[in-house]
Amino acid sequence: MSQRSTIIMTIQSKPVERPLASPFVANVMNPIIATLLRSPLHGALSSSTIVLSFKGRKSGKVYNLPVGYYELQGDRLVVIPLHRWWKNLQGNVPVTVWLKGRKYTGVANATQGDEVTISALQQIIANSANLMRVYKIERDANGQPDANAIQHVAQSLALVRIRLTTT
Fold it and tell me: CA gyration radius for the chain?
């Protein structure tokens, strides 16, 4: 296991290795990427990345995080967070989203471990070569993603659903 990784324990108590951003990425690159995504130069990054802004539950600090997203049902964005910041978004929390160069408001709700969350994660992971590579999910004899491996990983991940309320 690399030094820059963290362990997430699954329901079956088997570890899932997850990448951990370096301090350079968090402190230097994230603000640059967030600025680009809010500018007219957003084009190259906007197809897979948004800026998610929210207040910390305890600190009240405003966070502006560039995060990868997936679209489900048009007005619903889904984010699979790599760190614990998602806990700030439990329980229908107001957020601001910069999506494809435009600012939106919305409501985010973070969940982990329930069947609906696991099912959504299984669907997203099975259709994302990048996530399959990140979580080391192999293909079965028929060339399909290993369903058991996807379920194992999905049980350990959080999911943030964002419903956009204004355009």
Answer: 16
